[in-house]
Amino acid sequence: MRVVTVTLIILIIFIVSAVMLDNYINDTTNDLLKDIEVLNKLIEENKWSESKSQLANLQYTWEDVEKRWKLFLEHYEMDGIDIAMSRLDQYIEIENKPLALGEMAELRLLVGHIKKKESFKLENIL
């Protein structure tokens, strides 16, 4: 009986932790995607100085999120986001709209992919 109780407690802790982690990943990816959309709109409108400050805000947010995600997500997923942000920084610096928008699409895809890949669903568990 004691073994069954301990096993159930461990299972409940695991499920609750997984749900909490899923909520955290959803919240942080939604925040990042909102910031990305704001930046995308600024680039489309050729507001380069505002784009630079929004990118700085996005990078600050990303650095904070990245520290926590590194504890439980695969690092190569985050490396792609770091690379896209670095490229985006340079494209905004030289005010190259087509390349900046292309990099924004990649950044949006990478962040969205993490949200989809790490969600607590049966297809991701099996």
Which fold does the CATH topology refer to? Answer: Four Helix Bundle (Hemerythrin (Met), subunit A)
CATH homologous superfamily descriptor: Oxygen-evolving enhancer protein 3 (PsbQ), four-helix up-down bundle
Number of domain units? 1
Approximately how much helix is present in the residues?
Answer: over 70%
- Cα(first) to Cα(last) distance is 29 Å
- Runs with pLDDT <50, length 5+? none
Average per-residue pLDDT, rounded, comes to 90
CATH class: Mainly Alpha
Main beta sheet:
none
Shape: elongated
Layout of strands and helices, then pairs:
Layout: H1 2-44, H2 48-69, H3 75-93, H4 97-117, H5 122-125
Helix pairs in contact: 1-2, 1-4, 2-3, 3-4
